[in-house]
Known about the structure:
The chain is an all-alpha fold. The chain has one domain (1-107). Helices cover 85% and strands 0% of the residues. It has five helices and no strands. Helix 1 runs antiparallel to helix 3, helix 1 packs parallel to helix 4 (70-92) and helix 3 packs antiparallel against helix 4. It starts with a helix and ends with a helix. The model has no long low-confidence stretch (mean pLDDT 93).
Amino acid sequence: MLEPFSLFTSVLYVVQGLLGLTEQRVLTGDQRSRAQPAASVHLGSSIAFLVAGIASASWVWLYGLPTAWYPTILSLGLLVSILVQGWLYRSIGVSGSPILERAWTRLH
C-alpha cells in the first residue's frame, strides 16, 4: 500500500516541477524583479522537484521503498513546495497561480 502512494507522490513531484517551470515562463520581468529571492528559490525548487520526482518514481518502481518513512518524507517535501510557491505568490502580489489566472482570463 505504501509503494503506490509513494509512486503517486513522486508523480506529484514531477507535476509540481513542471508547473513551477511553466509559471516561471508566465512571470513578467517586473514580477521577477519584485520577487527576486522568491523567484530564484522557486525556479531552483521546481527543477529540484522535477528531478527528485523522476528519480523517486524510478527508484520505487525498480527497487521498492528504501525505508518505511519514505512516504512521510515525500509528503513533507510537497509541503516545502507549497510553502515556496506561496512565498512567490505573495512576493509578486497575486492570490493564486499566474497560469490559472491567465487561463481564467482567456475563458472569460
